[in-house]
Write a structure and sequence with these properties.
The protein has 126 residues and is an alpha/beta fold. It has one domain: Trna Endonuclease, Chain: A, domain 1 (3-Layer(aba) Sandwich), CATH 3.40.1350. The chain has two helices and six strands. A hairpin with a 2-residue loop joins strand 5 and strand 6. It is globular, with a radius of gyration of 14 Å.
Length: 126
């Protein structure tokens, strides 16, 4: 699945600073070239509604901290060990990619044709 996203560079525990403000990202994936994409990933043991709000805020703020990526598709991914079905549905409705790892299996929920992965790139020069 991650190969499907075309990620070529991955940073764990990425932080960016600008004008006294900070953004901290669990995993930052970047691809250049054909895919031209940035993926911000939030890692949780149990997915809760607050994690969805947190990653949406990171996605909304990211291009302020990294305007060099303003021409890239910007996607959000949440990986967790467990999640209630209604919270998974909420994340999917928000256009996030959802991965759940349990019993050595990986469940990828964003392939459901009912949901679309959202491009959060709404770069606006401030």
């Amino acid at each position: 699945m991650v190969k499907d996203l075309g990620i070529t560079d991955t940073s764990f525990g990425a932080s960016k600073y600008k004008n006294g403000k900070t953004i901290e990202i669990d995993v930052l994936g970047v691809s250049n070239g054909t895919n031209n994409r940035v993926v911000i990933a939030e890692i949780k043991s149990h997915l809760r509604e607050t994690a969805i709000e947190q990653i949406q805020q990171q996605l909304n703020d990211y291009l302020y901290f990294a305007p060099e990526h303003k021409d890239k598709e910007l996607l959000g991914l949440i990986a967790c060990i467990s999640a209630a079905p209604n919270i998974i549905q909420q994340a999917l409705k928000a256009g996030l990619i959802v991965l759940i790892v349990n019993d050595n299996l990986l469940e990828y929920y964003s392939t459901n044709k009912q949901y679309t992965i959202k491009d959060y790139n709404v770069y606006d020069e401030l």
